[in-house]
Amino acid sequence: MKSLTTFREVIAPVYDRPRPERLLAGNPQRATYSHFRAPGGDLDCGVWACEPGAWRIAFGPGKDEFFCVIAGRLRIADAAGRASEFGPGDACVIPAGFVGSFEVLEAVRKYYVVLERPAGNTV
């Protein structure tokens, strides 16, 4: 029987840091609380938290992410330098193939939904 996945459950996070070759500022610790992963691993949903810092990002051709900020502030800039800032309640989609930078201005927590598909199956 299928059951709901709630984000109220306490789960252990997975910690990491940006790869050194991508770092732009600081060396922030990131915590990922993956609450739901679909069979096959193409859909992942949970909560992500991070300390202040900045790094370059490059999304694969089949990876899209939706997020909604719970607390803190972050800035995302595209490869041309156009930047958008997000705070509590703000939401965004980072599309497949996006290249730019991700900067945590104030310690942040966000809900995330990541969808990964083979590159030829994007919408």
List keywords for this structure.
single chain; mainly beta; Jelly Rolls; 9 strands
What does this entry look like structurally?
With 123 residues, the chain is an all-beta fold. Helices cover 0% and strands 57% of the residues. Strands 1, 2, 3, 4, 5, 6, 7, 8 and 9 form a 9-stranded antiparallel sheet that branches. A hairpin with a 5-residue loop joins strand 3 and strand 4 (43-50). The model has no long low-confidence stretch (mean pLDDT 94).
Helices and strands in order, then pairings?
Layout: E1 14-16, E2 23-25, E3 30-37, E4 43-50, E5 53-58, E6 63-78, E7 83-86, E8 91-94, E9 99-116
Antiparallel strand pairs: 1-3, 2-5, 3-4, 4-9, 5-9, 6-7, 6-8, 6-9
Q: Which structural class do you get from the secondary structure elements?
A: mainly beta
Cα-atom Rg, whole angstroms? 15 Å
CATH architecture of the domain at 44-121: Sandwich
Counted by DSSP, the helix tally is: 0
- Shape, per Cα inertia axes: globular
What CATH calls the topology of the domain at 44-121 is Jelly Rolls
Brief description of this entry?
The chain has no helices and nine strands. With 123 residues, the chain is an all-beta fold.
